[in-house]
Design a protein that fits this description.
The complex is a heterodimer of chains A (213) and B (257). Chain A has 213 residues and is of the alpha/beta class. Chain A has one domain: Class I glutamine amidotransferase (GATase) domain (Rossmann fold), CATH 3.40.50.880. Chain A has six helices and 16 strands. In chain A, strands 2-1-3-4-16-15-14-11 form an eight-stranded mixed sheet. In chain A, helix 1 packs across helix 6. The longest helix of chain A has 13 residues. Chain A is globular and about 55 Å long. The two termini of chain A are 16 Å apart. Chain B has 257 residues and is α/β, with parallel strands linked by helices. Chain B has one domain: Aldolase class I (TIM Barrel). In chain B, 37% of the residues lie in helices and 27% in strands. Chain B contains ten helices and twelve strands. In chain B, strands 1-4-5-6-7-10-11-12 form an eight-stranded parallel beta barrel, surrounded by eight helices. Chain B is globular and about 50 Å long. Classes of the chains: A alpha/beta (213), B alpha/beta (257). At the A-B interface, helix 1, strand 10, strand 12 and helix 6 of A face helix 2, helix 3 and helix 5 of B. Chain A: This is Imidazole glycerol phosphate synthase subunit HisH. Chain A: Heterodimer of HisH and HisF. Chain A: InterPro entries: Class_I_gatase-like, GATASE, Imidazole-glycPsynth_HisH. Chain A: It is found in: Cytoplasm. Chain A: GO terms for molecular function: glutaminase activity; imidazoleglycerol-phosphate synthase activity; lyase activity.
Chain lengths: 213, 257
Protein backbone atom coordinates (compact mmCIF):
# COMPACT_ATOMS: atom_id res chain seq x y z
CA UNK A 1 0.00 0.00 0.00
CA UNK A 2 1.48 3.28 -1.09
CA UNK A 3 0.39 6.86 -0.63
CA UNK A 4 1.65 9.05 -3.43
CA UNK A 5 2.09 12.78 -2.98
CA UNK A 6 1.88 14.13 -6.51
CA UNK A 7 4.98 16.16 -7.31
CA UNK A 8 4.45 18.54 -10.19
CA UNK A 9 7.04 21.05 -9.06
CA UNK A 10 4.82 23.13 -6.79
CA UNK A 11 3.72 22.59 -3.27
CA UNK A 12 4.96 21.85 0.17
CA UNK A 13 5.72 18.22 -0.47
CA UNK A 14 8.17 17.60 2.29
CA UNK A 15 5.76 18.81 4.99
CA UNK A 16 2.85 16.78 3.68
CA UNK A 17 4.94 13.63 3.30
CA UNK A 18 6.48 14.00 6.75
CA UNK A 19 3.10 14.49 8.35
CA UNK A 20 1.72 11.41 6.56
CA UNK A 21 4.71 9.37 7.67
CA UNK A 22 3.97 10.50 11.19
CA UNK A 23 0.48 8.97 11.12
CA UNK A 24 0.98 5.80 9.06
CA UNK A 25 3.41 2.96 8.51
CA UNK A 26 2.34 2.79 4.89
CA UNK A 27 4.85 3.76 2.27
CA UNK A 28 4.72 7.47 1.40
CA UNK A 29 6.31 8.59 -1.86
CA UNK A 30 6.71 11.98 -3.46
CA UNK A 31 6.51 11.33 -7.15
CA UNK A 32 5.89 12.73 -10.62
CA UNK A 33 6.05 9.28 -12.20
CA UNK A 34 2.77 8.28 -13.80
CA UNK A 35 3.31 4.57 -13.06
CA UNK A 36 3.86 5.23 -9.37
CA UNK A 37 0.83 7.49 -9.28
CA UNK A 38 -1.33 4.88 -11.03
CA UNK A 39 0.00 2.18 -8.72
CA UNK A 40 -0.59 4.08 -5.48
CA UNK A 41 -3.54 3.20 -3.29
CA UNK A 42 -4.11 6.83 -2.25
CA UNK A 43 -3.15 10.19 -3.67
CA UNK A 44 -2.45 13.58 -2.21
CA UNK A 45 -2.68 16.60 -4.48
CA UNK A 46 -0.87 19.46 -2.76
CA UNK A 47 -0.53 22.94 -4.11
CA UNK A 48 1.31 26.07 -3.20
CA UNK A 49 1.78 29.36 -4.90
CA UNK A 50 -0.02 30.90 -7.80
CA UNK A 51 -2.68 28.69 -9.38
CA UNK A 52 -1.64 29.57 -12.93
CA UNK A 53 1.80 28.11 -12.17
CA UNK A 54 0.30 25.09 -10.45
CA UNK A 55 -1.94 24.28 -13.42
CA UNK A 56 0.77 24.89 -15.99
CA UNK A 57 3.30 22.77 -14.08
CA UNK A 58 0.74 19.98 -13.83
CA UNK A 59 0.31 20.18 -17.61
CA UNK A 60 4.02 20.50 -18.31
CA UNK A 61 4.67 17.34 -16.32
CA UNK A 62 1.98 15.50 -18.30
CA UNK A 63 0.06 14.93 -15.11
CA UNK A 64 -3.15 16.84 -15.74
CA UNK A 65 -4.61 14.15 -17.98
CA UNK A 66 -3.60 11.44 -15.54
CA UNK A 67 -5.13 13.22 -12.55
CA UNK A 68 -8.34 13.82 -14.51
CA UNK A 69 -8.45 10.20 -15.55
CA UNK A 70 -8.04 9.10 -11.92
CA UNK A 71 -10.74 11.52 -10.79
CA UNK A 72 -13.12 10.19 -13.45
CA UNK A 73 -12.39 6.58 -12.52
CA UNK A 74 -13.34 7.29 -8.87
CA UNK A 75 -11.09 4.41 -7.96
CA UNK A 76 -8.90 5.69 -5.18
CA UNK A 77 -9.08 8.22 -2.38
CA UNK A 78 -7.55 11.58 -3.17
CA UNK A 79 -6.87 14.42 -0.75
CA UNK A 80 -6.45 17.93 -2.14
CA UNK A 81 -4.67 20.48 0.02
CA UNK A 82 -4.66 24.29 -0.32
CA UNK A 83 -4.26 25.14 -4.01
CA UNK A 84 -4.85 21.41 -4.51
CA UNK A 85 -8.38 22.00 -3.23
CA UNK A 86 -8.83 24.99 -5.50
CA UNK A 87 -7.55 23.10 -8.56
CA UNK A 88 -10.44 20.64 -8.28
CA UNK A 89 -12.91 23.41 -9.11
CA UNK A 90 -13.90 24.57 -12.58
CA UNK A 91 -11.95 27.80 -12.63
CA UNK A 92 -10.14 30.35 -10.52
CA UNK A 93 -10.25 34.11 -10.84
CA UNK A 94 -6.57 34.31 -9.83
CA UNK A 95 -4.03 35.43 -12.46
CA UNK A 96 -6.78 36.90 -14.62
CA UNK A 97 -8.76 33.65 -14.81
CA UNK A 98 -7.40 30.12 -14.90
CA UNK A 99 -9.32 26.99 -15.96
CA UNK A 100 -8.92 24.19 -13.43
CA UNK A 101 -9.60 20.45 -13.25
CA UNK A 102 -13.38 20.79 -13.03
CA UNK A 103 -14.03 17.89 -10.69
CA UNK A 104 -16.51 19.92 -8.64
CA UNK A 105 -18.86 22.60 -9.93
CA UNK A 106 -17.92 26.01 -8.64
CA UNK A 107 -15.11 28.48 -8.70
CA UNK A 108 -12.26 30.03 -6.80
CA UNK A 109 -12.65 33.64 -5.77
CA UNK A 110 -10.53 36.40 -4.23
CA UNK A 111 -11.37 37.71 -0.77
CA UNK A 112 -11.30 41.28 -2.01
CA UNK A 113 -9.35 44.35 -0.96
CA UNK A 114 -9.70 46.95 1.78
CA UNK A 115 -11.82 44.75 4.01
CA UNK A 116 -12.82 45.77 7.51
CA UNK A 117 -14.55 43.94 10.33
CA UNK A 118 -17.56 45.29 12.23
CA UNK A 119 -15.26 47.17 14.63
CA UNK A 120 -13.57 48.91 11.71
CA UNK A 121 -10.37 46.92 12.22
CA UNK A 122 -8.60 46.24 8.94
CA UNK A 123 -9.02 42.64 7.78
CA UNK A 124 -5.89 41.20 6.30
CA UNK A 125 -5.51 39.23 3.09
CA UNK A 126 -4.09 36.59 2.89
CA UNK A 127 -6.37 35.01 5.44
CA UNK A 128 -3.50 33.72 7.52
CA UNK A 129 -3.60 31.86 10.79
CA UNK A 130 -5.73 29.52 12.84
CA UNK A 131 -9.43 29.72 12.18
CA UNK A 132 -12.39 27.62 13.23
CA UNK A 133 -13.85 25.11 10.82
CA UNK A 134 -17.56 24.41 11.02
CA UNK A 135 -18.42 20.90 9.87
CA UNK A 136 -21.40 21.35 7.57
CA UNK A 137 -21.89 17.67 6.80
CA UNK A 138 -20.61 14.59 8.54
CA UNK A 139 -17.67 12.91 6.84
CA UNK A 140 -15.29 10.07 7.80
CA UNK A 141 -12.42 12.55 7.63
CA UNK A 142 -13.92 14.53 10.52
CA UNK A 143 -13.75 11.52 12.86
CA UNK A 144 -12.38 12.52 16.26
CA UNK A 145 -12.19 16.21 15.33
CA UNK A 146 -14.42 18.68 17.18
CA UNK A 147 -16.82 20.81 15.20
CA UNK A 148 -15.26 24.26 15.32
CA UNK A 149 -11.69 22.99 15.71
CA UNK A 150 -8.99 25.37 14.53
CA UNK A 151 -6.87 24.70 11.46
CA UNK A 152 -4.06 26.68 9.91
CA UNK A 153 -4.89 28.69 6.81
CA UNK A 154 -2.92 30.81 4.44
CA UNK A 155 -4.69 31.86 1.28
CA UNK A 156 -5.99 34.85 -0.61
CA UNK A 157 -8.43 32.92 -2.78
CA UNK A 158 -11.17 30.60 -1.61
CA UNK A 159 -13.45 27.93 -2.99
CA UNK A 160 -17.09 28.61 -3.66
CA UNK A 161 -18.73 25.30 -4.52
CA UNK A 162 -22.02 25.34 -6.34
CA UNK A 163 -23.65 22.40 -4.64
CA UNK A 164 -24.20 22.25 -0.91
CA UNK A 165 -23.70 18.49 -0.87
CA UNK A 166 -20.06 19.00 -1.93
CA UNK A 167 -19.35 21.29 1.03
CA UNK A 168 -18.14 19.57 4.20
CA UNK A 169 -16.63 22.47 6.09
CA UNK A 170 -16.72 26.25 6.19
CA UNK A 171 -14.96 29.00 8.03
CA UNK A 172 -15.84 32.64 8.64
CA UNK A 173 -13.70 35.44 7.36
CA UNK A 174 -14.30 38.92 6.07
CA UNK A 175 -18.05 38.40 6.24
CA UNK A 176 -17.70 35.46 3.89
CA UNK A 177 -18.16 31.75 4.44
CA UNK A 178 -15.46 30.09 2.34
CA UNK A 179 -15.98 26.41 1.56
CA UNK A 180 -12.79 25.18 3.17
CA UNK A 181 -13.56 21.48 3.01
CA UNK A 182 -15.12 20.05 -0.13
CA UNK A 183 -15.45 16.65 -1.68
CA UNK A 184 -17.42 14.07 -3.54
CA UNK A 185 -17.01 10.32 -3.80
CA UNK A 186 -13.44 9.30 -2.98
CA UNK A 187 -12.20 12.89 -3.12
CA UNK A 188 -11.82 15.18 -0.12
CA UNK A 189 -10.13 18.54 -0.28
CA UNK A 190 -9.24 21.20 2.23
CA UNK A 191 -8.12 24.80 1.96
CA UNK A 192 -6.29 24.67 5.27
CA UNK A 193 -3.05 22.83 5.85
CA UNK A 194 -3.65 19.65 7.85
CA UNK A 195 0.09 19.02 7.79
CA UNK A 196 0.55 22.30 9.65
CA UNK A 197 -2.47 22.14 11.94
CA UNK A 198 -0.91 20.30 14.87
CA UNK A 199 -2.97 17.54 16.49
CA UNK A 200 -6.26 17.99 14.62
CA UNK A 201 -4.46 18.24 11.31
CA UNK A 202 -2.61 15.00 11.92
CA UNK A 203 -5.90 13.38 12.90
CA UNK A 204 -7.45 14.41 9.60
CA UNK A 205 -4.51 12.90 7.72
CA UNK A 206 -4.82 9.72 9.77
CA UNK A 207 -8.52 9.61 8.90
CA UNK A 208 -7.63 9.98 5.24
CA UNK A 209 -5.15 7.11 5.44
CA UNK A 210 -7.84 4.91 7.00
CA UNK A 211 -10.66 6.08 4.76
CA UNK A 212 -12.41 3.42 2.68
CA UNK A 213 -14.91 5.33 0.54
CA UNK B 1 -14.07 37.30 14.55
CA UNK B 2 -12.78 33.76 14.81
CA UNK B 3 -9.34 34.11 13.30
CA UNK B 4 -6.91 33.85 16.21
CA UNK B 5 -4.01 36.18 16.82
CA UNK B 6 -0.78 34.24 16.72
CA UNK B 7 2.13 33.78 19.09
CA UNK B 8 5.36 33.03 17.28
CA UNK B 9 8.45 32.05 19.21
CA UNK B 10 11.56 32.97 17.25
CA UNK B 11 14.68 30.84 17.10
CA UNK B 12 17.76 32.86 16.22
CA UNK B 13 20.11 30.16 15.05
CA UNK B 14 23.86 30.51 14.67
CA UNK B 15 25.81 27.54 13.32
CA UNK B 16 23.15 25.11 14.47
CA UNK B 17 22.43 26.51 17.96
CA UNK B 18 19.62 28.73 19.19
CA UNK B 19 21.04 32.01 20.45
CA UNK B 20 19.58 35.34 21.37
CA UNK B 21 21.52 38.51 21.25
CA UNK B 22 20.81 41.47 23.47
CA UNK B 23 20.97 44.34 20.99
CA UNK B 24 22.92 41.86 18.87
CA UNK B 25 25.77 41.51 21.38
CA UNK B 26 26.14 39.33 24.47
CA UNK B 27 24.82 36.14 22.90
CA UNK B 28 23.49 33.44 25.25
CA UNK B 29 23.15 29.82 24.17
CA UNK B 30 19.59 28.50 24.35
CA UNK B 31 19.90 25.03 22.91
CA UNK B 32 19.35 22.69 19.99
CA UNK B 33 16.87 24.21 17.49
CA UNK B 34 15.04 20.93 16.94
CA UNK B 35 14.52 20.37 20.66
CA UNK B 36 13.49 23.98 21.20
CA UNK B 37 11.04 23.83 18.27
CA UNK B 38 9.52 20.60 19.58
CA UNK B 39 9.05 22.13 23.01
CA UNK B 40 7.23 25.14 21.56
CA UNK B 41 5.09 22.89 19.40
CA UNK B 42 4.06 20.85 22.44
CA UNK B 43 3.25 24.07 24.28
CA UNK B 44 0.87 25.13 21.52
CA UNK B 45 2.88 27.76 19.65
CA UNK B 46 0.96 28.93 16.58
CA UNK B 47 4.01 29.08 14.35
CA UNK B 48 7.77 29.00 14.61
CA UNK B 49 10.19 31.40 13.01
CA UNK B 50 13.70 30.20 12.39
CA UNK B 51 16.12 33.02 11.80
CA UNK B 52 19.49 31.95 10.47
CA UNK B 53 22.09 34.41 11.69
CA UNK B 54 25.02 32.22 10.66
CA UNK B 55 27.68 34.42 9.18
CA UNK B 56 29.72 31.87 7.27
CA UNK B 57 28.57 30.37 4.00
CA UNK B 58 29.93 26.91 4.97
CA UNK B 59 27.50 26.62 7.83
CA UNK B 60 24.47 27.36 5.66
CA UNK B 61 24.08 23.68 4.84
CA UNK B 62 23.45 23.09 8.55
CA UNK B 63 20.44 25.37 8.34
CA UNK B 64 18.80 23.33 5.60
CA UNK B 65 19.39 20.18 7.63
CA UNK B 66 17.91 21.81 10.76
CA UNK B 67 14.85 22.96 8.83
CA UNK B 68 14.37 19.44 7.49
CA UNK B 69 14.62 17.95 10.97
CA UNK B 70 12.23 20.49 12.50
CA UNK B 71 9.74 20.00 9.66
CA UNK B 72 9.87 16.25 10.26
CA UNK B 73 8.76 16.60 13.85
CA UNK B 74 6.88 19.85 14.20
CA UNK B 75 3.54 20.11 12.45
CA UNK B 76 2.88 23.82 12.67
CA UNK B 77 3.97 26.53 10.23
CA UNK B 78 7.64 27.25 9.96
CA UNK B 79 9.12 30.45 8.58
CA UNK B 80 12.78 30.55 7.70
CA UNK B 81 14.73 33.78 7.35
CA UNK B 82 18.32 34.89 7.07
CA UNK B 83 20.31 34.97 3.88
CA UNK B 84 17.39 34.47 1.49
CA UNK B 85 18.63 36.16 -1.68
CA UNK B 86 17.49 34.15 -4.69
CA UNK B 87 14.54 32.08 -5.87
CA UNK B 88 16.83 29.06 -5.55
CA UNK B 89 17.30 29.88 -1.84
CA UNK B 90 13.52 29.99 -1.47
CA UNK B 91 13.00 26.73 -3.35
CA UNK B 92 15.65 25.04 -1.16
CA UNK B 93 13.95 26.16 2.06
CA UNK B 94 10.45 25.28 0.90
CA UNK B 95 11.66 21.85 -0.18
CA UNK B 96 13.34 21.42 3.19
CA UNK B 97 9.93 21.91 4.80
CA UNK B 98 9.67 25.66 5.41
CA UNK B 99 6.22 27.11 4.79
CA UNK B 100 7.34 30.68 4.36
CA UNK B 101 10.58 32.50 3.87
CA UNK B 102 11.48 35.85 5.29
CA UNK B 103 13.38 38.23 3.03
CA UNK B 104 15.29 41.02 4.65
CA UNK B 105 18.43 42.58 3.15
CA UNK B 106 17.71 41.36 -0.38
CA UNK B 107 14.41 43.26 -0.31
CA UNK B 108 16.33 46.47 0.32
CA UNK B 109 19.07 45.87 -2.23
CA UNK B 110 16.79 44.34 -4.90
CA UNK B 111 13.14 45.20 -4.25
CA UNK B 112 12.15 43.50 -7.52
CA UNK B 113 13.27 40.20 -5.97
CA UNK B 114 10.19 40.37 -3.72
CA UNK B 115 8.02 40.67 -6.81
CA UNK B 116 9.77 37.82 -8.57
CA UNK B 117 9.50 35.60 -5.48
CA UNK B 118 5.81 36.35 -4.98
CA UNK B 119 5.05 35.67 -8.63
CA UNK B 120 6.90 32.38 -8.53
CA UNK B 121 5.91 31.00 -5.13
CA UNK B 122 2.81 32.99 -4.22
CA UNK B 123 2.55 35.90 -1.82
CA UNK B 124 1.41 33.66 1.00
CA UNK B 125 4.88 32.27 1.53
CA UNK B 126 6.77 35.54 1.13
CA UNK B 127 7.39 37.42 4.35
CA UNK B 128 9.33 40.65 4.17
CA UNK B 129 11.30 41.50 7.29
CA UNK B 130 11.35 45.21 8.04
CA UNK B 131 13.91 46.52 10.50
CA UNK B 132 12.78 49.99 11.51
CA UNK B 133 14.38 52.57 13.72
CA UNK B 134 12.91 55.83 14.91
CA UNK B 135 14.65 58.79 13.32
CA UNK B 136 12.48 61.64 14.56
CA UNK B 137 13.44 63.52 17.71
CA UNK B 138 11.25 63.57 20.83
CA UNK B 139 8.31 65.89 20.22
CA UNK B 140 8.53 65.73 16.41
CA UNK B 141 6.01 63.85 14.28
CA UNK B 142 7.21 60.26 14.63
CA UNK B 143 9.12 58.89 11.67
CA UNK B 144 10.89 55.58 11.22
CA UNK B 145 13.44 54.47 8.68
CA UNK B 146 14.64 51.13 7.40
CA UNK B 147 18.00 49.97 8.71
CA UNK B 148 20.03 47.00 7.55
CA UNK B 149 22.92 44.98 8.97
CA UNK B 150 21.37 44.47 12.37
CA UNK B 151 20.33 48.08 12.72
CA UNK B 152 23.71 49.60 11.93
CA UNK B 153 23.19 50.81 8.38
CA UNK B 154 20.61 53.50 7.61
CA UNK B 155 18.98 53.40 4.19
CA UNK B 156 17.03 56.65 4.26
CA UNK B 157 13.84 54.73 3.39
CA UNK B 158 10.69 55.71 5.25
CA UNK B 159 9.42 52.61 7.04
CA UNK B 160 5.70 53.11 6.39
CA UNK B 161 6.21 53.89 2.71
CA UNK B 162 8.56 50.95 2.44
CA UNK B 163 5.99 48.63 4.00
CA UNK B 164 3.40 49.73 1.44
CA UNK B 165 5.88 49.22 -1.37
CA UNK B 166 6.75 45.70 -0.21
CA UNK B 167 3.07 44.75 -0.14
CA UNK B 168 2.57 46.24 -3.61
CA UNK B 169 5.46 44.08 -4.81
CA UNK B 170 3.84 40.98 -3.39
CA UNK B 171 4.83 40.49 0.25
CA UNK B 172 2.18 38.33 1.93
CA UNK B 173 3.14 39.26 5.46
CA UNK B 174 5.45 41.73 7.17
CA UNK B 175 7.74 40.92 10.07
CA UNK B 176 8.30 44.28 11.68
CA UNK B 177 11.18 44.61 14.11
CA UNK B 178 11.90 47.75 16.04
CA UNK B 179 15.66 48.08 16.13
CA UNK B 180 15.33 50.52 19.03
CA UNK B 181 13.52 47.95 21.11
CA UNK B 182 15.04 44.65 20.02
CA UNK B 183 16.65 43.02 23.02
CA UNK B 184 15.60 45.74 25.46
CA UNK B 185 12.54 44.03 27.02
CA UNK B 186 10.89 47.47 27.06
CA UNK B 187 7.97 46.40 24.86
CA UNK B 188 7.17 46.77 21.17
CA UNK B 189 7.43 50.15 19.52
CA UNK B 190 3.66 50.57 19.35
CA UNK B 191 3.87 53.69 17.19
CA UNK B 192 5.55 52.05 14.23
CA UNK B 193 3.52 48.87 14.64
CA UNK B 194 0.23 50.78 14.46
CA UNK B 195 1.41 52.97 11.61
CA UNK B 196 2.36 49.98 9.47
CA UNK B 197 -0.55 47.72 10.49
CA UNK B 198 -2.95 50.47 9.43
CA UNK B 199 -1.07 51.17 6.21
CA UNK B 200 -1.06 47.68 4.69
CA UNK B 201 -3.56 45.01 3.76
CA UNK B 202 -1.43 42.02 4.80
CA UNK B 203 -0.79 40.59 8.29
CA UNK B 204 1.85 42.29 10.39
CA UNK B 205 3.96 40.44 12.95
CA UNK B 206 5.24 42.69 15.73
CA UNK B 207 8.74 41.96 16.94
CA UNK B 208 11.45 43.43 19.08
CA UNK B 209 11.36 44.31 22.74
CA UNK B 210 9.01 41.87 24.43
CA UNK B 211 9.76 41.69 28.15
CA UNK B 212 6.44 40.64 29.64
CA UNK B 213 2.95 39.48 28.73
CA UNK B 214 1.44 42.97 28.79
CA UNK B 215 3.72 43.80 25.90
CA UNK B 216 2.13 41.02 23.85
CA UNK B 217 -1.35 42.33 24.64
CA UNK B 218 -0.31 45.86 23.69
CA UNK B 219 1.17 44.69 20.40
CA UNK B 220 -2.22 43.37 19.34
CA UNK B 221 -4.61 45.79 21.01
CA UNK B 222 -2.69 49.04 20.61
CA UNK B 223 -0.33 48.13 17.79
CA UNK B 224 -2.92 46.32 15.68
CA UNK B 225 -0.53 43.43 15.05
CA UNK B 226 -1.92 40.15 13.73
CA UNK B 227 0.82 38.14 15.38
CA UNK B 228 3.45 38.72 18.04
CA UNK B 229 6.94 37.33 17.91
CA UNK B 230 9.20 36.86 20.90
CA UNK B 231 12.33 34.96 21.73
CA UNK B 232 14.00 35.42 25.06
CA UNK B 233 10.91 35.53 27.30
CA UNK B 234 10.16 32.01 26.10
CA UNK B 235 13.70 30.66 25.65
CA UNK B 236 14.74 31.24 29.21
CA UNK B 237 11.56 29.97 30.79
CA UNK B 238 10.21 33.27 32.14
CA UNK B 239 6.88 32.51 30.52
CA UNK B 240 5.47 29.54 28.66
CA UNK B 241 3.38 29.80 25.51
CA UNK B 242 0.22 28.73 27.41
CA UNK B 243 0.89 31.48 30.00
CA UNK B 244 1.02 34.00 27.20
CA UNK B 245 -2.05 32.68 25.42
CA UNK B 246 -4.18 32.58 28.54
CA UNK B 247 -3.13 36.09 29.46
CA UNK B 248 -3.94 37.45 26.03
CA UNK B 249 -7.30 35.64 25.96
CA UNK B 250 -8.13 37.11 29.39
CA UNK B 251 -7.56 40.49 27.80
CA UNK B 252 -10.18 39.84 25.18
CA UNK B 253 -7.93 38.68 22.36
CA UNK B 254 -9.07 35.76 20.20
CA UNK B 255 -6.50 33.01 20.72
CA UNK B 256 -6.12 29.34 19.85
CA UNK B 257 -6.08 27.76 23.29
Amino acid sequence: MTIAVIDYGMGNLHSVAKALEHVTHENVVITDDSRSIRGASRLVLPGQGAIRDCMSELQRNDLQGLVQEILRAQGKPLLGICVGQQMLMEESEENGGVPCLGYLPGRVRHFGRDLHDIDGQRLKVPHMGWNRVTQRHAHPLWAGIDDGARFYFVHSYYVEAQEDGDVFGTTDYAGLTPHVATGRGPVFAVQFHPEKSAHDGLRLLENFVNWAP
Amino acid sequence: MALAKRIIPCLDVDAGRVVKGVNFVGIRDAGDPVEVAKRYNQQGADEITFLDITASVEDRGTTVEMVERIAGEVFIPLTVGGGIRTCDDIRTMLNAGADKVSINTAAVTHPEFVHEAAERFGSQCIVVAIDAKRVSAEGETPRWEIFTHGGRTPTGLDAVEWARKMVDLGAGELLLTSMDRDGTKAGFDIGVTRAIADAVSVPVIASGGVGDLDHLVAGVKEGGADAVLAASIFHFGEYTIPDAKRYMAEHGIEMRL
